[in-house]
Every structure is written in structure tokens, then in C-alpha cells.
Amino acid sequence: MSATGFLTAGFSGEFVLLIARLIADHADLDTRLDRLSAALAQAGLPLAMAGLLDSGDDVLQLSLPHGEKAVLTAAIVDHFGDCDLLVADHEIEVPRLFVSDMDSTMIGQECIDELADYAGIKDKVAEITERAMQGELDFQSALKERVGLLEGLGEGAIDDCLADRIRPVEGAAALVATLRNKGCRTVLVTGGFHHFADPVAEQLGFERVVGNRLAVSGGKLTGGLAGPISDASTKLATLEEEREKLGEGARVLATGDGANDIPMIQAADYGIAYRAKPKARDAANGRIASADLRVILKLLGIPRSEWLESVTR
């Protein structure tokens, strides 16, 4: 089966129930595709069509008349390795809503871990963070415990941390800007803190921010939070609230990396786990192993000529 000999983007696909897109290396592509096709046929998932998208990138699209997303995903990973991948039960299109986690997704750091370094307790806090993101600890309890350890830290450490430690993931600004230019609403929702999320959202071009607030008194962190906790349920509720505003049929993209992102990832049409913890990755119908978030634009079929590098202000 030759990938270049099959249909490219734009086919009607009226009989198709499953579509997968993956970033495929051209080396041995036909051989791997033949083996995947045989494996899918043996599993009762016949491959109807396969071809490279005409958007100018190495995106291979597979179309099947029936099957389960999880089975298709497992087969693709088995034959193509830990690739960048998106599976949907409809024609993939540009979403009208993008909801994203912040820490280790839009930025490369966990803010609370970096802030804890200014208090000399990064290792202790980072261990709790990792266990919470793996789904081993209750998120709210873990958050309160970590924030409590920061009691007495000067508020100025937040500005220092932002300037010295916090950096966007490669391609984050381009992803947001390009989606917004396509008419997509963009929302940053985090279990982290507005002290960090607000400037990050401003830098990247997000239109709304939802997160936690660190309590401050006398220029120092009190070790508590101000207002309700933003957690997994908040992320899901934010996604549903924003989707309802757009009306029926609006496609939603959600990205995250940890256990508290799972509900919103599962609720999205395109729930993409970015370099994620195993539980989040397994819950998603998309997964990104690459560092550059622009790969999501590739999977959505947006040509490079239409990518923007930042939001025009």
C-alpha cells in the first residue's frame, strides 16, 4: 500500500467513522503502513483509505469505516512508535474553542515547584506535584499542602520567578495566535495561580484565564489560597460553559499533561495529551511527543502558510 497513492485531504468520507492523523517519517512509510493495515484487518478494523495530507507537512491520514479509538491508537503506536497522533470519529476540523492547561503544557515548568525553590524547598514540593500529576494524590489536598509550605515567602519572589524561570513551550504562541486567527476562542485554565497565569496568558494571547489565587498579606504569602480552588472539576466546567456559548456542533480542543486534566481532555472533541503522564495520555484521543506545539496545527491540517507566530495586538 503506497501512502502517496491514496486519497489526500478533502475527500468526502461519508462512510468513515474513524479518522487518525499522525506525523509520519517517510522512511519505510509504505512498509510500516502495510504492516499496520494487516494488523488492523486481523483485528477486524479494515483500513479504507490512507494518504498524506496536502497541507505541506508529513501528516498521514488513515480512514476506517468502523472501530474503536483505543484499539486504533494502540495499533498505530505499535507500528509507528511514540508518534504525534490524533484520532477522531468525524472529519477533523479547526476547533472553535481551545482550552488548555498551563504548567508543563503552555509553559515548560511547574510554577509552584519553581517558586518553592526561592524558599529552599523545591525538592519537597516537586515530589508532591509529581505524585498529584500522576494521579496518586488528591489534587486539592496536595495543592493546599504545597501552598502551605510557602508561608512567609515574600511576594516579590513571584516576579523574580516569572522573570528568571518561566518560559513558554516552543510553538505555544503560534498555536494560540493561529487558532484565534481562525476564529477559535482561547482559554487558559490552570490548577496553578493567577500570579503566573495572567502574565503568561497575556504573553501568549489567551482571551480568558481561570486559576487559583495565592493569599498575600503584608507582602508575604500566607500559606493559603484566596477564593475557590481551581481543579479538575473547574477545568471541565469551564470547557462546558464556553462550549455552551458557542452552540451545538462547535468542536473543542483541550490540551494538558496531568491527571487533573483528564476530565476536560475526555470531554473535548480533540483531547490532546502533551508530553503527558501515563494516565492523561491513556485518557486522550490525541498525544504529542514532540516539544513543539505547532505540531497540533499540523494535525488539524492548517497549512504552514496560514500559521501566525503571535497574536496581533
Automatic annotation (TrEMBL):
BP GO terms, sorted: L-serine biosynthetic process
GO terms under cellular component: cytoplasm
Catalysed transformations (reactions): O-phospho-L-serine + H2O = L-serine + phosphate; O-phospho-D-serine + H2O = D-serine + phosphate
Superkingdom of the source species: Bacteria
Organism: Qipengyuania soli
Enzyme class: hydrolase
Database matches in InterPro entries: HAD-like_SerB, HAD-like_sf, HAD_sf, PSP
Name of the molecule in the record: Phosphoserine phosphatase
Residue intervals passing through the bilayer: none
UniProtKB keywords: Amino-acid biosynthesis, Hydrolase, Magnesium, Metal-binding, Serine biosynthesis
Pfam families associated with the record: HAD (PF12710)
Active site: 101 (nucleophile), 103 (proton donor)
